[in-house]
Amino acid sequence: MAHPVDARSQLLSQARWRWFEPLLWVAVFALPALLPGHALIVNEIAIVALFALSLDLVLGYTGIVTLGHAAFLGFGAYCAALFAKFIHPDPLLGLVVGVVSATALGAVCSVTILRGSDLTRLMVTLGVALLLLELANKLDWLTGGSDGLQGVMMGPLLGRFEFDLYGQTAAWYSLTVLLLLFTVARRWVSSPWGATLMAVRDNPLRAAAIGISVPSRLAVVYTLAAGVAGAAGALLAQTTGFASLDVFALERSADAVLMLVIGGVGWLYGGVLGAVVFKLLHDIISGITPQYWTFWMGLFLVVLMLVGRERLSPSRWLRRKGGAA
Fold first, then answer.
1. Cβ-Cβ contacts under 8 Å for 206 (sequence gap 6 or more)
2. Phi, psi angle pair for 157, to nearest 5°
3. At what angle do helices 192-202 and 214-240 cross, to 10 degrees?
């Protein structure tokens, strides 16, 4: 049996960056400058990757099954948009407001996932998203209802960088937030606390028997993941200048699940990789056959799950090598 200090050191070593990772991120940050015509799609990928990462914290690392994670994405989006429109247009302040608001909502909603089976959690989390969707629709005097919240004007980032029509500033802004929260999440899951999350995921009864407080782990990770999703929502509203009811839609949560399936569950890069593949496939297929792109996407997912999922999963390869999350 490994010594506790050695086990802690081994866990923390998984959070260290490999030599190629900084090069990878530098290349990603160079994309808006190298491909200015594709800066908007880079921005979209960064936002959905952050949302998928937040879902991976609860689904991949803790085993909380949810189809209502879009509730926090939408709440962060509307809070940031309302703050920009009625209080202050500074993007960073709006981002903080979106994160804090979604985190508070996550703390309140975490009570609903402490009891029941996976099916119960699935229905409860979906119900929360539907409640917020209907609430945003009814409060049309504030949210714009089905027309969406329009006229959201953002000030320059750091007082210097204007949000341009080509999306370069937006792309670098979203990528920076993605990188920062990815680093923080990586530290979380590679810590002893993160190891207890995986213990809860694998066997809650055994985790409780060895002294891990399962309810507190579920509540804390659900709250933190809600804050990360709120950051994605705030970025979405700020970089598009618009917030609509579809941010609460079931499709948002379902798309994030698909991204994790594509990239790998329980592996932080899985959300990023899945977002890249999903968005590129969406753009390419819908450009070729707009009416039937969902058919080809569905066929791709069936083949992926039946043939290549276990063989090609990077998370599986890393676990074999003893790699990081």
1. 199
2. -70, 130
3. 110
Q: How far apart are CA 99 and CA 238, in angstroms?
A: 13
- Number of domains into which the chain is organized: 1
Angle, helices 214-240/91-109, rounded to nearest 10 degrees: 150
**Phi first, then psi: what are they for 181, rounded to 5°?**
-75, -30
Residue 226 lies in a domain: yes
Whose tokens are 């804050």? That residue is 227
**Cα 159 from Cα 324, distance rounded (Å):** 37
- Name the nearest CA neighbour of 136 among 193, 82, 182, 190: 82
Give me the residue label for tokens 């579920």. 218
Residue 67 tokens, joined: 């189809």
State the average pLDDT over residues 51-76: 91
Query: Per residue in 208-233, pLDDT tens?
Result: 888 888 888 899 999 999 999 999 99
Q: Are 73 and 232 in contact (CB under 8 A)?
A: yes
Cβ contacts of 30 within 8 Å, gap of 6 or more: none
Mean pLDDT confidence for 13-31: 83
Which residue has tokens 């991949």? 60
8 A C-beta contact, residue 272 and residue 259: no
Spatial distance between the Cα atoms of 304 and 313, rounded to a whole number of angstroms? 10
Is residue 200 in some structural domain? yes
Whether 312 maps to a domain, the answer reads no
Q: Provide the CB-side half-sphere exposure for 106 (13 A, CA).
A: 30
pLDDT tens-digit map of 234-267: 999 999 888 888 888 888 888 888 888 888 888 8
CA-closest candidate to residue 42, choices 25, 55, 18: 25
Asked, for residue 187, whether it belongs to a domain, the answer is: yes
Give the pTM: 0.87
The tokens of 295 are what?
Answer: 């058919």
E-state strands within the chain = none
